């Protein structure tokens, strides 16, 4: 093997800085930003894209007063007071086919849900509360003026800012924009993220396993996490633990992507070797983050791209993605990373922990007899991916915690 840096206690590699998870996240966030470039995309292609501009409502919604019920529209002054009233039915209003005339006092029309309220009417009576008799209705009982109407502009006023620049578009937003007649939106250009795994032992699913080999799981879990963010993914596959291969892969990745994510090769055993190439090619800092699982972590600039070197252990790779990479990529996509949803839950089993590091234990939270109750999702080794697969939350134990007793409250972070 060429050029392999040897590591020993006497080597002059600087000791990695030790940061808390919050410090590491804050530092990363101050060093990333969104590209100042946008694209115009049709609404259906806008899911998980980030708005480049504010959206102001070109029309009000609803755009006209309309009926919330199938029934009869009339004027409130014709509502019964003491005795039942009889009103002739002079027409019908359908959704999409309004009643064109205007309603005189003492008349009513048949009206369907969503149909425009005609001039002269201000109240709708549900059809179940009316006796229909040929061409007229008989109405008794107590009714309130203005009932069963949906008013123009009740949801959105014309000119109102409905969504702000930096908003990460979700399904309801696409419906909202469609309701305003918006057919295309201006969004930040797609973020391109290159993904690679390092390790001589790695094989792709579908290949045979030779002795000492394992399947590359990180590229699949990380790929899926990236898919959930809606970024464009460049899968660069598995890179062998060879300086030339790593150098080439990183150069290709940095030339084509806004962010490069690798897993493996940043731990002490072969880290010196990867560190050497990274420090030749870019400005990368190696951090020890006081967290479990998950340290060390490499972060920096590689050509025009940001580089995230995640630990190889499968749980560590996912935890560090969730804590550092996801918020950083969200900012690079143009949005403000949403704060993680952290809740209090009662721990239904004892948790072991040594003080010194923040721990992200994998938990299963459920609602039991009115309280949130959390337990571990199996054994907690950073190589045991089943714990992530079964879990629906992280149990976040602070640095100084010395463990948790049954019944104690803990903080959880929902997936
Ligand atoms: P490393 O950080 O390269 O020293 O790897 C730490 C541990 O994670 C080793 O047991 C590796 O075999 C394992 N590992 C590294 N990369 C992957 C991967 N892509 N998929 C599954 N396990 C991995
Ligand atoms: Mg390795």
CATH C-level class of the largest domain is Alpha Beta
What is the CATH fold-level name of the largest domain? Molybdenum Cofactor Biosythetic Enzyme, Chain A
Secondary-structure content class: alpha/beta
Q: Architecture of the largest domain, according to CATH? A: 3-Layer(aba) Sandwich
Average pLDDT reading: 93
Q: What portion of residues belong to β-strands?
A: 25-35%
Write a concise synopsis of the structure shown.
It contains seven helices and 27 strands. It is an alpha/beta fold and 415 residues long.
Write up this protein.
With 415 residues, this protein is of the alpha/beta class. 20% of the residues lie in helices and 31% in strands. The strands form 7 sheets. It has a 7-stranded mixed sheet with strand order 1-19-21-22-18-14-17, with helices on both faces. Strands 8-5-7-6-10-9 form a 6-stranded mixed sheet, with no helix packed on it. A 5-stranded mixed β-barrel has the order 23-25-24-26-27. The chain contains 7 helices and 27 strands. It has 4 domains: 9-37 and 190-333, Molybdenum Cofactor Biosythetic Enzyme, Chain A (3-Layer(aba) Sandwich); 39-59 and 165-188, Molybdopterin biosynthesis moea protein, domain 2; 66-150, Molybdopterin biosynthesis moea protein, domain 3 (Molybdopterin biosynthesis moeA protein, domain 3); 342-414, Beta-clip (Beta Barrel), CATH 2.40.340. The model is unreliable at 1-12 (pLDDT under 50). α1 packs parallel to α6 (314-333), α3 (218-229) runs parallel beside α6 (314-333) and α4 (243-256) packs across α5. It is elongated and about 90 Å long. Adenosine monophosphate binds at residues 197, 199, 201-202, 214, 216-219, 263-267, 269, 311-314.
């Amino acid at each position: 093997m060429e050029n392999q840096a040897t590591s020993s206690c006497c080597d002059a590699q600087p000791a990695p800085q030790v940061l808390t998870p919050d410090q590491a996240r804050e530092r990363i966030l101050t060093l990333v930003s969104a590209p100042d470039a946008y694209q115009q995309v049709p609404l259906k292609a806008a899911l998980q894209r980030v708005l480049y501009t504010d959206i102001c409502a070109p029309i009000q919604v609803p755009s006209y007063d309309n009926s919330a019920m199938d029934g009869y529209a009339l004027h409130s002054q014709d509502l019964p007071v003491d005795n039942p009233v009889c009103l002739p039915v002079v027409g019908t209003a359908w959704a999409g086919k309004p009643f064109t005339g205007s309603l005189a006092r003492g008349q009513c029309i048949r009206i369907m849900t969503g149909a425009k309220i005609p001039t002269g009417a201000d109240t709708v009576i549900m059809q179940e509360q009316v006796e229909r008799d040929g061409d007229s209705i008989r109405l008794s009982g107590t009714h309130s003026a203005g009932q069963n109407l949906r008013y123009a502009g009740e949801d959105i006023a014309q000119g109102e800012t409905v969504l702000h620049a930096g908003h990460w578009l979700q399904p309801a937003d696409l419906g909202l924009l469609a309701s305003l007649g918006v057919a295309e939106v201006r969004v930040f250009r797609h973020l391109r993220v290159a993904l690679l795994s390092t390790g001589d032992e790695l094989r792709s699913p579908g290949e045979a396993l030779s002795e000492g080999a394992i399947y590359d799981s990180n590229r699949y879990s990380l790929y899926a996490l990236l898919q959930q963010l809606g970024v464009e993914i460049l899968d660069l596959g598995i890179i062998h633990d060879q300086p030339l291969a790593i150098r080439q892969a990183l150069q290709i990745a940095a030339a084509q992507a806004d962010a490069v994510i690798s897993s493996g090769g940043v731990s002490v055993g072969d880290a010196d070797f990867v560190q050497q190439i990274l420090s030749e090619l870019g400005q990368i800092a190696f951090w020890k983050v006081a967290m479990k699982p998950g340290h060390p972590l490499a972060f920096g600039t590689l050509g025009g791209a940001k580089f995230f070197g995640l630990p190889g252990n499968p749980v560590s790779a996912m935890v560090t993605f969730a804590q550092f990479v996801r918020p950083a990529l969200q900012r690079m996509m143009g949005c403000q990373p949403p704060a993680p949803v952290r809740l209090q839950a009662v721990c239904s089993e004892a948790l072991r922990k040594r003080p010194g590091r923040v721990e992200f234990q994998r938990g299963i939270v459920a609602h039991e007899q009115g309280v949130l109750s959390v337990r571990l999702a199996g054994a907690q080794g950073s190589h045991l991916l089943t714990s992530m697969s079964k879990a629906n939350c992280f149990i976040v134990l602070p640095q100084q915690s010395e463990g948790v007793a049954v019944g104690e409250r803990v903080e959880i972070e929902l997936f």
